[in-house]
Amino acid sequence: MPAVDTAWSIERARALDDEDALGGIRHRFLRPDGLVYLDGNSLGMLPTGVPEATRRVVEEEWGRALISGWTECGWMEAPERLGDRIAPIIGAGPGEVLVADTTSVALAKLVGAALAARRDRRVVLTSADNFPSDLYAAAGAARLQGAELRVVDRSELPAALDEDVAVCCLTQVDFRTGELHDLPGLTAAAHEVGALALFDLCHSAGALPVGLGEHGVDLAVGCTYKYLNGGPGSPSFLYVREGLQGELENPLPGWLGHETPFDFDRRWRPAEGIRRFLTSTPPILALTALDAALDAFEGVSIDTVRAKSERLGQLFIEVIDDLGPASLTVASPREAARRGSQVSLEHPRAGEVVAAAADKGVVGDFRSPGLCRFGFAPLYLSYAEVFQAAELVSAAATSLSD
Ligand SMILES: Cc1ncc(COP(=O)(O)O)c(C=O)c1O
């Protein structure tokens, strides 16, 4: 943190902007005037290269190359090529990440693959605070294989890990509170009982260093429309540790995951490596937008992103503490190391706080019954914006407390 050690002020926030190593990245996004966008944990901002890249692919590739685009324009390889672009952001290696499907579908596929590979174990373990779609998808995948989804309180996870568990399926950052869970510790605990560790990285990818390889995580999924800025409904990614790929079967095999799709062979023969987890034709227009969006990460260290994310969150919390009414309380962990890139605040009239802040140009979101969520995307936010947002949110809550 800088030398200035006074209460927060716009000058102090601007001093941080002056020395911000990521300050030069902000122009890589189309930032609407007068808006402080704190909802990048739901939908990332539009990177500047996306409109031209999508125009080019629509008009020049689809429009002119037509069917030959599949071979001449690199469309067929896009799921793996983009996977390799995401890999360094989440600490994976080349050939370990594939972009396909949606997070829920990818999760169901990997849970299914894990259960099929561990036939002597019939439990998928998860925590009750997991994202509901993960619970539905994991339960569905388990049901199809005569297995059970065991849902426990987070505090009970270590005790619930036993030798019946095939895969422990968790989300690294809690979507409600922004709490960052212990990925290395939970992975090691799963491995101790011979289970696989599967993480949902929706709220981590592009916001913090995940270190999949470093921590020996087996499987992961995540969306690309939050901190990776791929656009509304952009495809998800899935990760399978290299050493495990030959052992796992895609439970939803499709022609493009076949070793030789254009032989139209009746028998299923999986492609080598991560490609076997592909099922269907890649959505080229969506992948084009994602590809251009990933340019925003060029030359950016994820450790630098994390350092700024922690500071933005601390600034926001400290200003809310100073200026907010007593009814506005911090629901996220206060310690930056235990928090993802989001700060959630509790207020009895949370929906109205979010709406009043939005009227003043601060976009966050509301989660029933009483949470205001604010996400901090370090690539496009400035410290001054976050300071102003905290002032406006405090003022909105104060006016509702009167
Ligand atoms: C943590 C988490 N998991 C899963 C999902 C669902 O993703 P999808 O709509 O790509 O299936 C979301 C969506 O926001 C999410 O936040």
Major beta sheet, specifics?
7 strands, mixed
Structural class: alpha/beta
Question: How much of the sequence is in beta strands?
Answer: 5-15%
Distance between the termini: 35 Å
The count of strands amounts to: 13
- What order do the strands of the largest sheet run in, or round the barrel if closed? 2-8-7-6-5-3-4
- Name the overall outline: globular
Given as residue ranges, the uncertain stretches (5+ residues, pLDDT < 50) are: 1-5
Count of discrete domains: 2
> Number of helix segments?
12
Helix content: 25-40%
Mean pLDDT equals 96
**Which superfamily, in CATH terms, is the homologous superfamily of the largest domain?**
Type I PLP-dependent aspartate aminotransferase-like (Major domain)
- Please write the CATH class name of the largest domain: Alpha Beta
| CATH architecture term of the largest domain | 3-Layer(aba) Sandwich
Q: Any idea of the CATH topology of the largest domain?
A: Aspartate Aminotransferase, domain 2
What compounds sit in this structure?
pyridoxal-5'-phosphate
> What is the H/E string?
HEHHHEHEHEHEHEEEHHEEHEEEH
- The radius of gyration over CA amounts to 22 Å
